[in-house]
Amino acid sequence: MLSLDGIARALGGEVRGDKVRAPGPGHSAPDRSMTVWITSDGNDITVDSFANDDKMACKDYARSKIGLPPWEPKNANDDSIIKRMSARVRKQDSGETTKPEPADEPVAETIVLPIPADKRPGPGFVRSWRATANAQEATACVVTDTLLCLDEIGVAEGRDAAAAVYQLASGVGKGRSARDGSIRAPMTWRVLTLSTGELPMAAKIAEDKQRKAYAGQAVRLLDVPADAGRGYGLFDNAGPDGDPARLAEALQKAALSAYGEAGPAFVRALMDMGQEEARAIVVELVDSFVMEHAPADADGQIRRAAARLGMIAAAGELARTFNIVPWQEGEAEAAAARALADWIGSRGGTEPAEVHEAIAQARRFFEAHGESRFESVDDSDARPVPNRAGWRRGHGDGRVWLVLPEMWKSEVCTGLDPVATAKILAERGMLKRDPNGRLQRSERTPGGATLRVYVITAAVFDGGSDAP
Question: Could you state, in order of their start, the residue ranges of all structural domains in the chain?
């Protein structure tokens, strides 16, 4: 069992409270820039440096002075998940083909916002959404190949948020000219972005009345509800004190004093494993996650999101294998699977986002203008309708709306492909085709003329065949 007095003697430092202040590696004897304290189990140490020395180098130095063995990751070959993945890779290399093995029954879990793990203090690691495009580029470059934490999307302007989603996902900054007119090399980065906020991304973008969220933005920044469904908000339990608020406060305080070790340790363990083996194992873990957790009929957008969450699950399982985090086998995978299921549920199903948007936009138009802008065919004494979009006929579930082609293109399908939208509605019984299967029908209008129109049914209000 370690003691503070023994650590102080070994490091040439002094005990201060529950910590030891001692000289860091390469520093003079009076230096007290390195802080060491004993972990809760009494068998290991945690190290911090106020001189911005490398945390892992400080920890290795302190462990050697105290007499502890050098830190090493847990042997990956002893771990069941990694062992299975390694076996699959070897079989594939030998030409054999195998079906992904089903994962062990996972523990019910949910995604929890990670505590910052960087060499810098926590408050400097979490950035704000309230920034210009140039500032976001510079920030992404600073944290490239790590995690970009953006706090509270609500403080951003809708226009800026819309541009930032595409910009951060693309990994390439704006093209700019140098003073001599030549093209400057653009900034590049590769980050995984984690955002918080009370508003979904689509709602934030919609605050700018001239813009709307597109499918590409929705799949680049996944809106996952921060609710574990256990009655404790974000958490799946109330913590040791039975109070989720106190648990959140404890995590915030811990993030200010314990950081900068997990990330470097994870990278070091990957390097020890070897680049080719690590790549092959991660690819297998991601492919297995997508095959097991993405619905069989899922659209490509769903599979793309599943692959990203699968990579997060793979990182979590590897971190557990390397003995960096105290999780049980399958917990990281279960958490990522829960996030995927919640995201699919919040977006309305496994169909492409463009399908949901087309149906929703058509439904909004007829909810707003179904009576006021469509002249009644059944009432010969009805007053003329200003700014007419077409005609309406029938009552109740048998009512239909006859929409003029140009009104269909310019108003019902604003910002959408009018032909694709008509096909989507027709496939769900919300639009009636003509006897030859064409999207427009020939219908007689009150003036006696026969016109080609789009015929919308009352199913557009209840969702037709897309209703749950």
Answer: 4-66, 122-347, 353-466
Q: Is the dihedral of CA 276, 285, 144, 112 positive or negative?
A: negative
In 3D space, the residue among 25, 196, 36, 24 whose CA is nearest the CA of residue 116 turns out to be: 196
DSSP of 284-325, one letter per residue? HHHHHHHHHHS-TT--HHHHHHHHHHHHHHHHHHHHHHTTSS
Q: Which residues contact 302 (CB under 8 A, 6 or more apart)?
A: 294, 295, 344, 350
Phi-psi map region of 86: left, alpha, beta (phi>0 left; psi -120 to 50 alpha): alpha
How many Å apart are CA 346 and CA 399, to the nearest integer? 31
In Å, how far are 375, 384, 408, 440 from 387, measured between CA atoms? 10, 10, 13, 21
CA–CA gap between residue 446 and residue 393 (Å, rounded)? 11
For each of the chain's 468 residues, which pLDDT tens digit applies? 789 999 999 999 999 888 899 998 888 888 888 989 888 778 888 888 887 777 777 888 888 889 888 665 444 444 555 555 544 444 444 443 333 333 333 222 222 334 443 334 344 578 888 888 788 888 888 888 888 888 888 888 878 888 888 888 888 888 888 888 888 888 899 888 888 888 887 777 777 767 766 667 777 888 888 888 788 888 888 888 888 888 888 888 887 777 788 888 999 998 888 888 888 999 999 999 999 998 887 888 889 999 999 999 999 999 999 999 989 999 999 999 999 999 888 877 778 888 888 998 999 999 999 989 999 888 777 778 888 999 999 988 899 999 999 999 999 999 889 999 999 999 999 999 999 999 999 998 887 789 999 999 999 987 544 444
Q: Tell me if the pTM is above 0.70.
A: no
Burial class (CB in 10 A: 0-12, 13-18, 19+), 250: middle
Give the alpha-carbon dihedral of 344, 347, 352, 358, to 10 degrees. Answer: 160
